[in-house]
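in:
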């Protein structure tokens, strides 16, 4: 994965910040055919598969999109816990590979427990919406910054949007390191 390779080769840290790609997606999800009505879904799927492969990421044959709001709140909470780094990869896999509805609290608790986080604490976070305001603030900040896609890499007013090959992200990091001096 490009991010892991960057971490291994450069003194960088990454922070996951929630972004509302399709915030109006209903709880039960929406078919990609409905979401992208009139567009060539198969071409879009193949393009995503190619981009993900270039980034070293798996990508399943998804037919639906799901509301990721609760997953974002879970991830935000997980970032406050020891050993939370793996939650984001697990949520990615659940959504893009395993086709999990990320609005299903039981599924999210299982994912959290699967990466070593406390299941009862995760359930409380989700049922009581303890990180709703924190995610709301992240969404507001993203809108104010003009972010329109994921992933977005941002630092020092510089932005790289979308799933990019390693060499593009490496140039971004090198530029940031040179500008720090």
């Amino acid at each position: 994965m490009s991010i892991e390779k960057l971490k291994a080769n450069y003194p960088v840290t990454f922070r996951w910040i929630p972004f509302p790609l399709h915030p109006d997606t209903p709880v039960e999800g929406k078919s990609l055919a409905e979401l992208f009505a009139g567009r060539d879904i198969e071409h879009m799927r193949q393009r995503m598969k190619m981009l993900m492969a270039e980034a070293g990421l798996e990508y399943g044959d998804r037919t639906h999109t799901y509301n990721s709001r609760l997953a974002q709140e879970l991830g935000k909470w997980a970032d406050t816990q020891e050993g939370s780094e793996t939650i984001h990869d697990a949520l990615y896999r659940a959504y893009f590979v395993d086709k999990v509805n990320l609005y299903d609290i039981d599924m999210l608790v299982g994912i959290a427990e699967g990466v070593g986080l406390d299941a009862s604490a995760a359930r409380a976070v989700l049922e009581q919406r303890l990180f709703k305001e924190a995610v709301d603030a992240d969404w507001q900040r993203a809108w104010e910054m003009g972010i329109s896609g994921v992933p977005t890499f941002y630092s020092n007013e510089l932005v790289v949007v979308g799933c990019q090959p390693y060499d593009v992200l490496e140039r971004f990091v090198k530029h940031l390191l040179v500008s720090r001096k």
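note: Residues 166-180 form the longest helix (15 residues).
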